[in-house]
Amino acid sequence: MSAYLDNAATSWPKPEAVYQAVDHFMRELGATPGRGGHRREEEAAHIADQARSAIAELFHAPDLAGVAFTMNATQAINMALKGLLVPGDHVITSSIEHNAMWRPLKALERRGVAVTAVPCAPGGTLALADVEAAIRPSTRLIAMLHASNVLGTILPVAEIGALARKHGIPFLVDASQTAGAYPIDMAVMNIDLLAFPGHKGLFGPHGTGGLVVRPDIALETWVEGGSGAESAPESMPEALPLRLEAGTQNAAGIAGLLAGVRFVLEQGIEQIRQHEMALTALLIDALREAPGLIVLGPPDLSQRTAIASVTVEGYVPDQLAAVLDQVFDIATRAGLHCAPQAHRTAGTLETGALRFSPGYFTTADEINEAAAALLSIL
Predict the structure, then answer these.
(1) Are 253 and 261 in contact (CB under 8 A)?
(2) Torsion, Cα of 250, 255, 261, 264 (10° steps)
(3) Of 299, 291, 281, which Cα lies nearest the Cα of 121?
(4) Stretches in the chain below the pLDDT threshold 70
(5) Is the peptide bond before 156 cis (omega within 30 degrees of 0)?
(6) Cβ count near 271 (within 10 Å)
(7) What is the predicted pLDDT for the residue at 334?
Protein backbone atom coordinates (compact mmCIF):
# COMPACT_ATOMS: atom_id res chain seq x y z
CA MET A 1 0.00 0.00 0.00
CA SER A 2 1.16 3.54 -0.71
CA ALA A 3 0.19 6.65 1.21
CA TYR A 4 0.43 10.36 0.48
CA LEU A 5 0.96 12.15 3.80
CA ASP A 6 2.29 15.52 2.65
CA ASN A 7 -0.97 17.43 2.45
CA ALA A 8 0.42 20.31 4.52
CA ALA A 9 2.60 21.09 1.48
CA THR A 10 0.06 20.33 -1.26
CA SER A 11 -3.22 18.44 -1.01
CA TRP A 12 -3.49 15.35 -3.19
CA PRO A 13 -5.47 13.88 -4.76
CA LYS A 14 -7.89 16.63 -5.77
CA PRO A 15 -11.66 16.22 -6.09
CA GLU A 16 -12.56 15.00 -9.58
CA ALA A 17 -14.43 18.25 -10.23
CA VAL A 18 -11.15 20.18 -9.97
CA TYR A 19 -9.49 18.17 -12.72
CA GLN A 20 -12.58 18.52 -14.89
CA ALA A 21 -12.80 22.29 -14.36
CA VAL A 22 -9.19 22.90 -15.39
CA ASP A 23 -9.48 20.60 -18.39
CA HIS A 24 -12.74 22.21 -19.52
CA PHE A 25 -11.29 25.71 -19.23
CA MET A 26 -8.13 24.84 -21.15
CA ARG A 27 -9.94 22.97 -23.92
CA GLU A 28 -13.18 24.94 -24.30
CA LEU A 29 -12.48 28.52 -23.18
CA GLY A 30 -8.82 29.48 -23.07
CA ALA A 31 -9.62 33.17 -22.63
CA THR A 32 -8.36 35.66 -20.06
CA PRO A 33 -10.95 37.25 -17.74
CA GLY A 34 -11.26 40.97 -18.40
CA ARG A 35 -9.14 40.83 -21.56
CA GLY A 36 -11.39 40.89 -24.63
CA GLY A 37 -14.99 41.42 -25.61
CA HIS A 38 -16.11 37.98 -26.76
CA ARG A 39 -18.17 35.13 -25.38
CA ARG A 40 -15.25 33.06 -24.13
CA GLU A 41 -13.81 36.00 -22.24
CA GLU A 42 -17.18 36.74 -20.66
CA GLU A 43 -17.50 33.14 -19.47
CA ALA A 44 -13.95 33.22 -18.09
CA ALA A 45 -14.77 36.43 -16.23
CA HIS A 46 -17.95 34.83 -14.88
CA ILE A 47 -15.92 31.90 -13.53
CA ALA A 48 -13.52 34.30 -11.80
CA ASP A 49 -16.46 36.19 -10.27
CA GLN A 50 -17.96 32.92 -9.04
CA ALA A 51 -14.65 31.98 -7.47
CA ARG A 52 -14.50 35.32 -5.63
CA SER A 53 -18.04 34.77 -4.40
CA ALA A 54 -17.30 31.24 -3.16
CA ILE A 55 -14.13 32.37 -1.38
CA ALA A 56 -15.97 35.29 0.22
CA GLU A 57 -18.65 32.87 1.42
CA LEU A 58 -16.11 30.44 2.85
CA PHE A 59 -14.18 33.08 4.80
CA HIS A 60 -17.16 35.36 5.58
CA ALA A 61 -15.31 38.12 3.77
CA PRO A 62 -16.74 41.64 4.15
CA ASP A 63 -16.83 42.25 0.37
CA LEU A 64 -16.21 39.85 -2.51
CA ALA A 65 -14.54 42.71 -4.43
CA GLY A 66 -11.78 42.48 -1.82
CA VAL A 67 -10.82 38.97 -3.01
CA ALA A 68 -7.69 39.44 -5.11
CA PHE A 69 -6.16 36.42 -6.83
CA THR A 70 -2.43 35.68 -6.50
CA MET A 71 -0.13 32.82 -7.44
CA ASN A 72 0.13 31.60 -3.82
CA ALA A 73 -0.03 32.68 -0.19
CA THR A 74 3.57 33.93 -0.30
CA GLN A 75 2.68 36.45 -2.96
CA ALA A 76 -0.42 37.49 -1.02
CA ILE A 77 1.61 38.04 2.17
CA ASN A 78 4.18 40.13 0.31
CA MET A 79 1.36 42.14 -1.24
CA ALA A 80 -0.09 42.92 2.19
CA LEU A 81 3.18 43.64 4.01
CA LYS A 82 4.73 45.77 1.30
CA GLY A 83 1.46 47.49 0.57
CA LEU A 84 1.08 48.69 4.17
CA LEU A 85 4.47 49.09 5.84
CA VAL A 86 6.96 51.91 5.32
CA PRO A 87 10.23 52.79 7.09
CA GLY A 88 9.52 53.88 10.66
CA ASP A 89 6.55 51.53 11.05
CA HIS A 90 6.51 48.69 13.58
CA VAL A 91 5.03 45.24 12.95
CA ILE A 92 4.33 42.42 15.42
CA THR A 93 4.64 38.77 14.43
CA SER A 94 5.29 35.43 16.15
CA SER A 95 8.39 33.29 16.62
CA ILE A 96 7.00 30.34 14.61
CA GLU A 97 6.42 32.01 11.23
CA HIS A 98 6.95 30.34 7.88
CA ASN A 99 9.51 31.95 5.58
CA ALA A 100 6.60 33.25 3.50
CA MET A 101 6.07 35.74 6.32
CA TRP A 102 9.51 35.86 7.91
CA ARG A 103 11.64 36.64 4.87
CA PRO A 104 9.61 39.61 3.60
CA LEU A 105 9.50 40.94 7.16
CA LYS A 106 13.28 40.70 7.41
CA ALA A 107 13.60 42.41 4.02
CA LEU A 108 11.40 45.24 5.29
CA GLU A 109 13.43 45.38 8.50
CA ARG A 110 16.55 46.06 6.42
CA ARG A 111 14.66 49.01 4.90
CA GLY A 112 13.76 50.56 8.26
CA VAL A 113 10.63 48.71 9.44
CA ALA A 114 10.88 47.55 13.06
CA VAL A 115 9.89 43.91 13.63
CA THR A 116 8.99 42.25 16.95
CA ALA A 117 8.64 38.47 16.98
CA VAL A 118 6.65 37.54 20.09
CA PRO A 119 8.18 34.36 21.58
CA CYS A 120 6.00 31.25 21.56
CA ALA A 121 6.39 28.29 23.90
CA PRO A 122 8.29 25.26 22.51
CA GLY A 123 4.96 23.73 21.54
CA GLY A 124 4.08 26.85 19.58
CA THR A 125 1.45 28.30 21.90
CA LEU A 126 1.30 32.09 22.22
CA ALA A 127 0.24 34.23 25.19
CA LEU A 128 -2.12 37.06 24.29
CA ALA A 129 -0.61 39.26 27.00
CA ASP A 130 2.78 39.04 25.28
CA VAL A 131 1.26 40.29 22.03
CA GLU A 132 -0.33 43.26 23.77
CA ALA A 133 2.90 44.05 25.59
CA ALA A 134 4.69 44.32 22.24
CA ILE A 135 2.41 47.09 20.92
CA ARG A 136 4.07 50.48 20.42
CA PRO A 137 2.75 53.85 19.26
CA SER A 138 4.34 53.09 15.87
CA THR A 139 2.77 49.64 15.50
CA ARG A 140 1.18 49.61 12.06
CA LEU A 141 0.36 45.91 11.69
CA ILE A 142 0.02 42.58 13.49
CA ALA A 143 0.90 39.79 11.07
CA MET A 144 0.83 36.12 12.07
CA LEU A 145 0.12 32.67 10.74
CA HIS A 146 -3.08 30.95 11.81
CA ALA A 147 -1.41 27.59 12.37
CA SER A 148 2.16 26.32 12.20
CA ASN A 149 3.15 24.05 9.33
CA VAL A 150 5.71 22.39 11.62
CA LEU A 151 4.00 22.13 15.00
CA GLY A 152 0.37 22.17 13.91
CA THR A 153 -0.29 24.70 16.66
CA ILE A 154 -3.30 26.96 16.09
CA LEU A 155 -2.72 30.49 17.35
CA PRO A 156 -5.57 32.34 19.13
CA VAL A 157 -6.44 34.36 16.05
CA ALA A 158 -9.86 35.53 17.26
CA GLU A 159 -8.38 36.87 20.49
CA ILE A 160 -5.47 38.52 18.68
CA GLY A 161 -7.92 40.04 16.20
CA ALA A 162 -9.99 41.50 19.03
CA LEU A 163 -6.82 42.93 20.56
CA ALA A 164 -5.78 44.44 17.24
CA ARG A 165 -9.20 45.98 16.73
CA LYS A 166 -9.16 47.47 20.25
CA HIS A 167 -5.89 49.24 19.47
CA GLY A 168 -6.88 50.20 15.93
CA ILE A 169 -4.14 48.07 14.33
CA PRO A 170 -4.75 46.15 11.08
CA PHE A 171 -4.46 42.36 11.39
CA LEU A 172 -2.96 40.14 8.68
CA VAL A 173 -3.43 36.35 8.95
CA ASP A 174 -1.55 33.72 6.97
CA ALA A 175 -4.15 30.95 6.54
CA SER A 176 -1.89 28.57 4.62
CA GLN A 177 -2.57 25.67 6.99
CA THR A 178 -6.17 26.46 7.89
CA ALA A 179 -7.95 27.65 4.73
CA GLY A 180 -10.40 24.86 3.96
CA ALA A 181 -9.41 22.83 7.03
CA TYR A 182 -10.47 25.04 9.96
CA PRO A 183 -13.35 27.53 10.34
CA ILE A 184 -12.39 31.09 9.41
CA ASP A 185 -14.76 34.01 9.87
CA MET A 186 -13.06 37.28 9.03
CA ALA A 187 -15.78 39.33 10.72
CA VAL A 188 -15.89 37.36 13.97
CA MET A 189 -12.08 37.06 14.13
CA ASN A 190 -11.51 40.74 13.22
CA ILE A 191 -9.20 39.78 10.35
CA ASP A 192 -8.44 42.70 8.04
CA LEU A 193 -6.23 40.87 5.53
CA LEU A 194 -6.30 37.12 4.91
CA ALA A 195 -3.66 35.40 2.77
CA PHE A 196 -4.49 31.91 1.51
CA PRO A 197 -3.06 29.32 -0.90
CA GLY A 198 -5.25 27.49 -3.39
CA HIS A 199 -3.27 24.25 -3.59
CA LYS A 200 -3.58 23.06 0.01
CA GLY A 201 -6.86 22.80 1.93
CA LEU A 202 -8.90 24.40 -0.85
CA PHE A 203 -7.95 21.55 -3.24
CA GLY A 204 -7.08 23.93 -6.07
CA PRO A 205 -4.19 23.66 -8.56
CA HIS A 206 -0.70 24.97 -7.99
CA GLY A 207 -0.24 28.63 -8.82
CA THR A 208 -3.46 29.76 -7.16
CA GLY A 209 -4.20 31.69 -4.00
CA GLY A 210 -5.30 35.10 -2.91
CA LEU A 211 -5.47 38.00 -0.51
CA VAL A 212 -8.81 38.99 0.99
CA VAL A 213 -8.77 42.67 1.91
CA ARG A 214 -11.25 44.61 4.05
CA PRO A 215 -12.59 47.46 1.88
CA ASP A 216 -11.27 50.26 4.08
CA ILE A 217 -7.69 48.94 4.03
CA ALA A 218 -5.70 50.92 1.46
CA LEU A 219 -2.74 49.05 -0.01
CA GLU A 220 0.02 50.55 -2.09
CA THR A 221 0.71 48.46 -5.17
CA TRP A 222 3.86 46.33 -5.19
CA VAL A 223 3.54 45.28 -8.82
CA GLU A 224 1.94 47.24 -11.66
CA GLY A 225 0.79 46.38 -15.15
CA GLY A 226 -2.26 45.70 -17.27
CA SER A 227 -5.62 45.57 -15.51
CA GLY A 228 -7.95 44.89 -18.42
CA ALA A 229 -10.10 47.87 -17.46
CA GLU A 230 -9.29 51.54 -16.75
CA SER A 231 -6.31 51.22 -19.07
CA ALA A 232 -5.78 54.93 -19.82
CA PRO A 233 -4.24 56.09 -16.47
CA GLU A 234 -0.52 55.56 -15.85
CA SER A 235 -1.19 54.17 -12.37
CA MET A 236 -3.13 51.13 -11.23
CA PRO A 237 -6.89 51.55 -10.61
CA GLU A 238 -7.94 52.43 -7.08
CA ALA A 239 -10.82 49.94 -6.98
CA LEU A 240 -10.37 46.38 -5.75
CA PRO A 241 -9.63 43.81 -6.99
CA LEU A 242 -8.21 45.47 -10.12
CA ARG A 243 -5.67 47.41 -8.05
CA LEU A 244 -4.01 44.20 -6.87
CA GLU A 245 -4.32 42.03 -9.96
CA ALA A 246 -1.75 43.37 -12.43
CA GLY A 247 -1.20 41.21 -15.48
CA THR A 248 -2.83 38.03 -16.69
CA GLN A 249 -4.10 35.74 -13.95
CA ASN A 250 -3.99 31.92 -13.84
CA ALA A 251 -7.50 31.67 -15.27
CA ALA A 252 -7.54 27.89 -15.68
CA GLY A 253 -6.20 27.53 -12.15
CA ILE A 254 -8.92 29.84 -10.84
CA ALA A 255 -11.51 27.59 -12.52
CA GLY A 256 -10.01 24.64 -10.64
CA LEU A 257 -9.89 26.67 -7.43
CA LEU A 258 -13.59 27.44 -7.77
CA ALA A 259 -14.33 23.71 -8.00
CA GLY A 260 -12.13 23.07 -4.95
CA VAL A 261 -13.78 25.76 -2.83
CA ARG A 262 -17.20 24.49 -3.82
CA PHE A 263 -16.15 21.01 -2.72
CA VAL A 264 -15.12 22.39 0.69
CA LEU A 265 -18.43 24.24 1.04
CA GLU A 266 -20.38 21.12 0.09
CA GLN A 267 -18.49 18.83 2.47
CA GLY A 268 -18.41 21.37 5.29
CA ILE A 269 -15.36 22.54 7.22
CA GLU A 270 -16.38 20.69 10.38
CA GLN A 271 -16.62 17.34 8.57
CA ILE A 272 -13.26 17.88 6.91
CA ARG A 273 -11.61 18.83 10.19
CA GLN A 274 -13.20 15.95 12.09
CA HIS A 275 -11.91 13.42 9.56
CA GLU A 276 -8.40 14.83 9.38
CA MET A 277 -8.02 15.17 13.14
CA ALA A 278 -9.30 11.63 13.76
CA LEU A 279 -6.53 10.38 11.47
CA THR A 280 -3.97 12.58 13.23
CA ALA A 281 -5.02 11.17 16.60
CA LEU A 282 -4.79 7.63 15.22
CA LEU A 283 -1.26 8.27 13.95
CA ILE A 284 -0.02 9.91 17.13
CA ASP A 285 -1.45 7.11 19.28
CA ALA A 286 0.21 4.48 17.08
CA LEU A 287 3.61 6.17 17.33
CA ARG A 288 3.48 7.23 20.96
CA GLU A 289 5.23 4.14 22.34
CA ALA A 290 8.12 4.18 19.88
CA PRO A 291 11.39 4.52 21.79
CA GLY A 292 13.02 7.93 21.48
CA LEU A 293 10.16 9.38 19.41
CA ILE A 294 8.83 12.85 20.26
CA VAL A 295 5.75 14.41 18.70
CA LEU A 296 6.18 18.17 18.34
CA GLY A 297 3.39 20.63 19.10
CA PRO A 298 0.69 20.83 21.77
CA PRO A 299 -0.69 17.55 23.16
CA ASP A 300 -4.25 18.91 23.03
CA LEU A 301 -5.47 18.04 19.52
CA SER A 302 -8.11 20.77 19.66
CA GLN A 303 -5.23 23.26 19.55
CA ARG A 304 -3.66 21.89 16.39
CA THR A 305 -4.21 21.07 12.74
CA ALA A 306 -3.72 17.70 11.02
CA ILE A 307 0.05 17.68 11.32
CA ALA A 308 2.25 15.28 13.26
CA SER A 309 5.92 16.25 13.13
CA VAL A 310 8.24 13.87 14.96
CA THR A 311 11.86 13.49 15.91
CA VAL A 312 13.45 10.16 16.80
CA GLU A 313 16.59 9.94 18.89
CA GLY A 314 19.44 8.52 16.85
CA TYR A 315 17.74 8.97 13.48
CA VAL A 316 18.03 11.69 10.84
CA PRO A 317 14.57 12.84 9.63
CA ASP A 318 15.71 13.06 6.00
CA GLN A 319 16.88 9.45 6.06
CA LEU A 320 13.61 8.27 7.61
CA ALA A 321 11.66 10.10 4.91
CA ALA A 322 13.81 8.56 2.19
CA VAL A 323 13.26 5.01 3.47
CA LEU A 324 9.52 5.59 3.88
CA ASP A 325 9.39 6.81 0.29
CA GLN A 326 11.70 4.35 -1.45
CA VAL A 327 10.83 1.19 0.47
CA PHE A 328 7.20 1.73 1.50
CA ASP A 329 5.98 4.34 -1.05
CA ILE A 330 4.85 6.63 1.77
CA ALA A 331 5.22 10.36 1.07
CA THR A 332 6.17 12.58 4.04
CA ARG A 333 8.25 15.75 4.44
CA ALA A 334 11.52 16.06 6.34
CA GLY A 335 13.82 18.94 7.18
CA LEU A 336 13.03 22.51 8.24
CA HIS A 337 9.79 22.83 6.21
CA CYS A 338 10.68 26.40 5.12
CA ALA A 339 10.07 27.40 8.74
CA PRO A 340 13.37 27.62 10.63
CA GLN A 341 11.84 30.01 13.16
CA ALA A 342 9.36 27.34 14.24
CA HIS A 343 12.16 24.80 14.55
CA ARG A 344 14.25 27.27 16.54
CA THR A 345 11.29 27.73 18.91
CA ALA A 346 10.79 23.96 19.20
CA GLY A 347 14.51 23.28 19.69
CA THR A 348 14.84 21.27 16.47
CA LEU A 349 16.69 23.77 14.27
CA GLU A 350 19.77 21.56 13.93
CA THR A 351 17.92 18.32 13.20
CA GLY A 352 14.64 19.31 11.57
CA ALA A 353 11.74 16.89 11.85
CA LEU A 354 9.78 14.24 9.97
CA ARG A 355 6.27 15.50 9.18
CA PHE A 356 3.16 13.45 8.51
CA SER A 357 0.15 15.43 7.27
CA PRO A 358 -3.00 13.45 6.42
CA GLY A 359 -5.70 14.98 4.26
CA TYR A 360 -9.39 14.60 3.59
CA PHE A 361 -8.80 11.73 1.16
CA THR A 362 -6.45 9.84 3.50
CA THR A 363 -7.81 6.62 5.00
CA ALA A 364 -7.31 4.97 8.37
CA ASP A 365 -5.65 2.01 6.61
CA GLU A 366 -3.06 4.35 5.13
CA ILE A 367 -2.36 5.84 8.56
CA ASN A 368 -1.92 2.37 10.09
CA GLU A 369 0.36 1.40 7.21
CA ALA A 370 2.50 4.51 7.69
CA ALA A 371 2.79 3.98 11.43
CA ALA A 372 3.70 0.33 10.96
CA ALA A 373 6.32 1.27 8.36
CA LEU A 374 8.01 3.82 10.62
CA LEU A 375 7.94 1.44 13.58
CA SER A 376 9.48 -1.31 11.45
CA ILE A 377 12.31 1.04 10.49
CA LEU A 378 12.94 1.94 14.12
Answers:
(1) no
(2) -130
(3) 299
(4) 34-36, 227-228
(5) no
(6) 12
(7) 98
| Contact status, residue 33 vs residue 47, Cβ threshold 8 Å | yes
What pLDDT score does 34 carry?
A: 65
Amino acid at 124: G
The number of C-alpha atoms within 13 Å of 237 and in the hemisphere containing its C-beta is: 16
| Domains recognised in the chain with CATH numbers | 3-12+269-377 (3.90.1150.10), 16-267 (3.40.640.10)
Q: Taking the model in full, what pTM does it have?
A: 0.96
> Which pairing describes strands 293-295 and 308-312: parallel, antiparallel, or unpaired?
antiparallel
Give the per-residue pLDDT at 3.
97
What is the pLDDT at residue 30? 76
Catalytic residue among 338, 375, 377, 378: 338
User: Is 338 an annotated catalytic residue?
Assistant: yes
How far apart CA 330 and CA 304 sit, in angstroms, is 23
pLDDT of residue 143: 99
